[in-house]
Amino acid sequence: MKITEKLALDAFKNDKETHIHIDQKICQNCKERFCIYACPANLYSLNEKGEMGVEFTGCLECGTCQIACIYGSVKWKYPRNGFGVQYRFG
Amino acid sequence: MEKVDVIIVGGGLAGLSCAYELADSGMTVIVLERGDFSGSKNVTGGRIYLNSIRDYLPDLWKEAPLERHVTKEILTLLGETNSTTLELYSDRLNRTPYPSYTILRAKFDRWFADLVSEKGVFVIPQKTVDDLIKDGEKVIGIRAGDEEIGADCIVAADGILSFMAEKTGLRQPFKPEHFALGFKEVIELDSKTIEDRFRLGENEGAAQLFVGSLTKGMMGGGFLYTNLDSLSLGIVVGIRSLNLKEPREEVYKLLDEFKERSEIKNLIRGGNVVEYSAHLISEGGIHIKPKLYGDGILVVGDAAGFGLNMLVTVRGMEYAMASGVLAGRTIKKAKEKNDFSASSLSEYEKLLNESFVIKEMNTFKNSLSILENERLFSKYPKAISDLFEKVMWVDEHPKEGLYKTICEGLKKEFLNFQTFKDWLEFRKM
Question: Which of B106, B139, B265, B332, CA to CA, is 20 to 30 A from B299?
């Protein structure tokens, strides 16, 4: 089962605004790319320009990226009222 | 600014337990929950141990929508291609009041919030608190979008990332070594199949933990809990361990590989995955305990980092509930004196220190450094399974004496200085 298929099983209410902010200046100097390996939803990837991107709409709201990124590039807050993942089992 | 007596930020177990304790106090209490309903943002492995919290919340459990009471504790040591399983059944686990249950939080927390609401507490969903309002050092209210609400006391029950504790400077900055990531699938399977596969009586449950090659040497392990008509199957990995892993490992793939193991495949066969979830786990224990109170504020549950990894038991929910109740008791006392200053609220820390919460966290203060030992997660589970396999193996060659096989195996893998040192360390647990 692909990770995208797993995420498709979850109930999401997606905001237009992202709740995860990335500081490209910090990311430019990062070699390890901790976020890519740590995100359980596989939402982080580099674009063609070599910039780090995150698909915030599939976020499981665990906050792991913020802690794994020891350089402090990932600024994370909770999605706005009522948005984001809504677990039915938990 | 409108004002109430108490605002509880976060409608999870800690926040709702606090609200429950305050429900009959005559105070106006509101719980602000950011999800659509309580439980909709919450995740556990999970199982809950009731014995330690029964005295704190004696009337809660009769009607509570828990899953199965755990009668079987299973520990599986995974090698690369083999595994050894230890299974404990005990009548003691199967006697009422049952000591432990499997649990699904979306179901349980939602029920708990309804119960608290019936008792007169306002649980308001879809309300994300953005900021605290302060008057000097004193916390006097919260801001949620355009709304401002004042209160004598704010309870930060906003979970492991606690932005509230961060904003008041009560919490330390996060470090990867103090947190683990837990992620899991809920796999639907009918109850008869679950009971047959795990050899359980009606409503009986199994809790299975896996240590070894599934985490590829990283600190962590796997878990499988039987719910009423689903399985919770997941993995926990320490974040520092994951950061340092070479070659690099995309963490989400571990679960797919785990599911391909024969040991798991046959247990989940025919099941439908219905949800995928993830959550952080606090593993810092006493080392990351924030300041638990300030002028007009208390910190409870995950927000206070109350969690412990004791290798075979992972705890958190009981600490959340007990700390919530103790915060509630503290607030009641503060109300009698009409004094919500830090010195008045320091009663909370006193109560916690006397409770199992801080006592256990002190007892297990070394668990983190012991768990950082990679051999626990790679070498030992593999060595035990390899030796067991050797003992059981029969082929075309004349079999060597069992005693000789065992002695040689032990000598090779365990009778060395490294293992001796590990053993000395382990005694601190």
Answer: B106
